[in-house]
Write a structure and sequence with these properties.
Blueprint (H helix, E strand, L loop, with lengths): L1 H38 L8 H5 L3 E6 L8 E6 L8 E6 L2 E5 L2 E8 L5 E7 L5 E7 L2 E7 L5 E9 L9 E8 L4 E4 L4 E4 L2 E2 L5 E8 L4 E8 L4 E8 L4 E7 L2 E5 L5 E11 L2 E10 L5 E4 L10 E4 L2 E7 L7 E7 L7 E4 L2 E7 L1
Parallel strand pairs: 12-17
Antiparallel strand pairs: 1-2, 1-26, 2-3, 4-5, 5-6, 6-7, 8-9, 9-10, 10-11, 12-13, 14-15, 15-16, 16-17, 18-19, 19-20, 20-21, 22-23, 23-24, 24-25
Length: 340
């Protein structure tokens, strides 16, 4: 009995030491974070209503400071100017019609993730839980459909053994199902591999959409065309991820693997002409790991992290020609959505 008590005492002592250590680390991390926020230069801001009343770009702000992570907007004709902030924090955001889709992480003793639909005044309309780390979200043009992708395991598409869950909801929260349950056809034959993943939805209309399908056992990804009505997915071509349909519906942009470094894939953006099947690779976007957005029918937007500033990202713009040179459009930004 003494031996048992002794073991219990030791276990309790170890637990106390661990808890104290975790608490000390948390306090230290909090102080470091507060110091970084307080030392950051102020972000130039302007009135939200005025910006939202004209064509604009919505995004997640990643400039250091108190507004880090908040959704912001800038005028379409002054993208690197003063930004207007909402009070909504998102990891990923999209805007279409009268609504916005926001995916967020809520940190705590038990971290949870959620998707939220907001109205034109950035007030919550519907909220539902996500099974893991937010990755992608897209709305249909009228805001009636919401696609979300979360990582169930792993933190990125470069992680071996990652798994995703992609769902489509109506804006009122009604679930239209897990896209992985749709019937997948690859090269004309049913594809039923247990390890298939679907992610990165982009809507054409209220029925048709494009997405990525993948199987790690086969070692391939495919650009697929989907139908909500028929609950089907049909492969169009290999080696395409995170598609994005152009405003005129004539082109699809996606990222594709162009190299492998240290066992990890390296992507560049490419654009597919849907009429003639011509693919244009944009080699100057090498290193991108994002679902691109369209500024207009000839220009793509995408996010890149700053190598020298962890946590800070920039939104870049590039024309859809093979020799185009990218340039930063919105510094300290992520997940852009154009509202024109």
């Amino acid at each position: 009995m003494r031996r048992v008590r002794s073991r219990v005492v030791v276990l309790v002592a170890i637990t106390v030491v661990v808890l104290v250590g975790v608490g000390a680390y948390a306090v230290s991390a909090w102080r470091a974070n507060r110091a970084a926020i307080e030392s950051a230069p102020p972000v130039e801001s302007t009135a939200l209503d005025a910006v939202l009343a004209a064509p604009h770009i919505v995004f997640r702000s990643t400039l250091p400071g108190n507004e880090y992570g908040l959704v912001a907007a800038v005028p379409l004709d002054d993208p690197d100017g003063a930004r207007a902030f909402t009070d909504v924090a998102c990891d990923r955001v999209d805007v279409a019609g009268p609504v916005a889709s926001c995916l967020r992480t809520i940190a705590g003793i038990a971290t949870v993730w959620e998707a939220e639909v907001l109205d034109a005044d950035w007030q919550p309309v519907e909220t539902w839980g996500l099974p893991g780390i937010p990755s992608r979200t897209r709305l249909s043009d009228d805001g009636g459909l919401v696609a979300t992708t979360s990582f169930v395991t792993g933190h990125s598409y470069a992680t071996v053994g990652f798994s995703t869950l992609t769902e489509i909801h109506r804006a009122d929260g009604t679930s239209l199902g897990n896209v992985e349950d749709f019937a997948l056809t690859v090269d004309g034959a049913p594809f039923t591999a247990a390890d298939r993943n679907i992610w990165g939805v982009t809507f054409v209309d209220d029925d048709e959409f494009y997405a990525t399908a993948a199987s790690q056992s086969v070692g391939k990804t495919w650009l697929v065309r989907g139908s909500l009505r028929d609950r089907t997915l049909t492969s169009l071509r290999d080696d395409a991820e995170c598609p994005s349909i152009s405003p005129d519906r004539a082109q699809v942009a996606y990222k594709k693997v162009v190299d492998t470094v240290g066992g990890q894939p390296v992507w560049s953006l490419a654009v597919l002409d849907l009429a003639d099947g011509t693919e244009t690779l944009l080699p100057t976007t090498r290193g991108v790991d994002d679902q691109a957005a369209w500024l207009d029918d000839d220009t793509l937007l995408y996010g890149l992290p700053r190598a020298d500033q962890p946590g800070t990202t920039d939104v870049w713009a590039v024309d859809t020609t093979a020799d185009a040179t990218p340039a930063v459009l919105i510094p300290g930004a992520w997940s852009p959505a154009v509202v024109s």
